[in-house]
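Summary for the steering committee. The consortium agreed at its last meeting that each partner would contribute one worked example illustrating the joint modelling workflow. Our contribution is presented below. We chose a case with several input lines so that the handling of multiple components could be demonstrated. No manual editing was applied between input and output; the record is shown as generated.
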Amino acid sequence: MFPELLNHRAEQVSARLNAAVLATPPHRLRDAMLHAVSGGKRLRAFLVIEGAAMFDVPAAQAVQAAAAVEAIHAYSLVHDDLPAMDDDDLRRGQPTVHVKWDEATAVLVGDGLQSLAFDLLADPAMGPHRADLVASLAKAAGAMVLGQAQDIAAETADTPLTLDQITTLQANKTGALIAWSAEAGARLAGEDPAPLTSYATALGLAFQIADDILDVEGSADKTGKRVGKDAEAGKATFVSLLGLDAAKNRAGELVQQACDALANYGERAESLRAAARFVISRES
Amino acid sequence: MFPELLNHRAEQVSARLNAAVLATPPHRLRDAMLHAVSGGKRLRAFLVIEGAAMFDVPAAQAVQAAAAVEAIHAYSLVHDDLPAMDDDDLRRGQPTVHVKWDEATAVLVGDGLQSLAFDLLADPAMGPHRADLVASLAKAAGAMVLGQAQDIAAETADTPLTLDQITTLQANKTGALIAWSAEAGARLAGEDPAPLTSYATALGLAFQIADDILDVEGSADKTGKRVGKDAEAGKATFVSLLGLDAAKNRAGELVQQACDALANYGERAESLRAAARFVISRES
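What follows is the complete predicted structure of the assembly.
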């Protein structure tokens, strides 16, 4: 069953991520880093580990690559939550780092987690293709930062974003890291990741549409973060542009596209298909 | 002459760094990144390029590795200058990023520059040892963040730091990145970087003592940043702990140690020796 497998992968990656943080010297900063990497669905980790299994990558390498992308994701959340950015005080059901510690600590936690991600990925244990993994993750992390800057710029722009603009923005902000996760297994195996790109592109977009739907229909209790933020901020989202029903239909179509893109992999890709179906059915 | 060679290396690394930033999509964020990477002495770049020349590393690889470490250094300055951190409005004689743009942009500029550094270093053009360079730079960047956290913690501690504690703090905050720079050439060549570690350790400490002396004796005009900050904040520094004269003597001894550590390299290491002498004679 998908939820059990997702939980199992989440436990594996959490253990690896905690061990990596705990390998750094004891300090208040380390406590805050541990807090920042805890919780979450670990969807990116799931994509890495299940994608890697399709290419018979050793499990330890897959889990370590998954820990790297979750470290990048966690750093981005800590920085996005800062008062100067989205100013959120709740994340994954817990107080955000700048609330529980302070802003300076939150900046440093994010910075340290980004370094840790590349440290994990460049480890000799990661095999002969580790530099390619670093280069592609660095590009995805750069795109993510650009997407966040585009998102902030949109909030103060005179005209709301068009559907094309919001699609580009989200492809940067969340799509690039999701795509990297789906492609990481192929890269670890030294195989061409291109066949997974169609899957990942459709999945990333479906994920963001589902996020916009959750911001309208979800509860803070289940999502572990503040909801209704987008409408409050008057932000253009897939829901505001398409309407709720059309957004749901579009997300469903994208999941179908994502699944279809994996046709050549047959049964081996069943976990990735389940992940695609999950992103639009999740409640958090 | 050393100043001319330093300038020449600075121009080479600045050109590479600008090109790397300009290869990202045009955006307000990119303008701010260009601002953040401009100026500076480029001492770390000098150490990388001259260190690499000792091992006959191709110049293009050396300059690109130098651009990577300067990107990390620039990111750290942008984040350190934030209001929640050191709250500085002047850097390299120019307004800081959060002053000229805003805090959110400054956070994202730093984040993007860290990603860019690893992107540059993991580039296939960097040769067969690029993953080792990434792993070692990621560790140095992690140490730098810890050093900054230790520095902030020291400001609010009940008792001032001891000489041992401040030495550890600075070895993390500035020493690790300087050491990486000195060792990068050996790593690029696949040689053991250990012989350069004694040089780099002594150099890094001399550099920080000189920084503390400049904070007392320097001018904002020449340093391009606010001076007198440490005394104002009642911070323990090498100068407050040792006294000005003993601090100068100690820096001189460390430079001698750094030069002696290069004895086996003979004439080839003359540039690195000149760099060591420079760090305690500089006015900025």
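Residues 130-155 of chain B form the longest helix (26 residues). Chain B has one domain: 2-281.
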